[in-house]
Amino acid sequence: MSDQASAGLFPVLETASSKLALSFPDRSLSYAELAAVAGGLANSLRATGASRVAVWATSTLETSVGVVAALLAGVPVVPVNPKIGERELAHIVADSAPALVLAEPAAQLPPELAALPRHDVDLSPSPVAATPEPNDAAPAVIVYTSGTTGLPKGVVLTQGAIAATLDAVADIWQWTDEDVLVHALPLFHVHGLILGILGPLRRGGSVRHLGRFDTAELANTLADDGTMLFGVPTMYHRIALEVADAPALAAALRGARLLVSGSAALPVTDHQRIFEATGQHVVERYGMSETLMNTSVPARGPAKPGTVGVPLHGVELRLVDEAGTTIDTSDGETVGEIHVRGPNLFTEYLNRPDATAAAFVDGWFATGDVATRDSDGYIRIVGRKATDIIKSGGYKIGAGEIENALLEHPAVAEVAVTGEPDDDLGERIVAWVVPDGTPPTERELADHVARLLTPHKRPRVVRFQESLPRNDMGKVMKRALHG
Question: Domain AMP-binding enzyme C-terminal: where (predicted)?
Fold first, then answer.
């Protein structure tokens, strides 16, 4: 790993290979073409003296080239979600102060970005190669958090943190230059951009981006030459609903080497449906903007649906109780907050030394996620410390466990579980249910959970919904659920 890291993020760009690097529905680039296009843009960016650039992160070849060029130039890049709202965009532009914006030529930019100098990403090759990449400590990507507890914070990730994560997941997934990754993830965040675009380029493999998620196109592309699939639970849920009656989709998934889900927990029911139709287990992993990747189920390890596997190479992970004491037991039941440290961590929240200091405890990053650990060292996320741990009747209960149990009921299509104040219990368990067909009764669902888990984990209130509020990565926004 260290030899590759010392050669920069993308040593394969120096080979001028004719091998496919990036493929989008409208155009593809070989490694030789990518080196020429991104190298020329990198030199242009370096010549501007820009300390930071924004990228209008559409799901396009231009976005990918723009980010690679900025990394080659040593200019930190701020990916911007094209669906972002006015207030968040104004904050991000003011906070990160980009010198210019990179965009595809046809893109219509909102006023906050249109006011900046604009550099359209030209896919014409340049005869001038880029100079060597910066060192590992150089800031590379600034990803803004979702801002669920205030204005979004800019997470500063270095070249070294990205390299360490990509090498660690390559190790646990046995990812090589022979792999062809297929995905349709957005390119403004860690999953789609860093894992899904930079990951294949660091390995010297190929990526085929679908542009948008479509199960038929996914099946065709995987069946062509794809070996790996990255997705989020909303995508795998659609696959799970269709795969039993879609022979081409089932065959394509069956032929893939690795299926990876991330960004939120994949319900056990979806795991089961996909496995029954394909014989393939979906691998889950766990990461954050601040930490990149922390854990994963190994490609060749025991399949444990509902877990996110073991710590990656170089990542230290501990569980701590409410008093801050490290939990040494691995019983699969004791709940603690996840703390991590390692070369994968961010360096700071941009312009927020107070928030940076508050995020660390004795050198460990406090994730705010709570989990259990079993005897094999596998981590099971039970939720967020702030929203997914319900203290009811003297018990600490993880919302995720109840959600998985409710999803096993045939009349439940989607569900979110929260807690709300209760004079007797402290908090009562509330289930927000999107029914599949005729809604079941509240008593039926409560008895279902009591039978599968224990009586004190049953929902005391059930609220039926037409849909659940989700963000762009498919995560349910529980703070938007109100009684």
Answer: 401-475
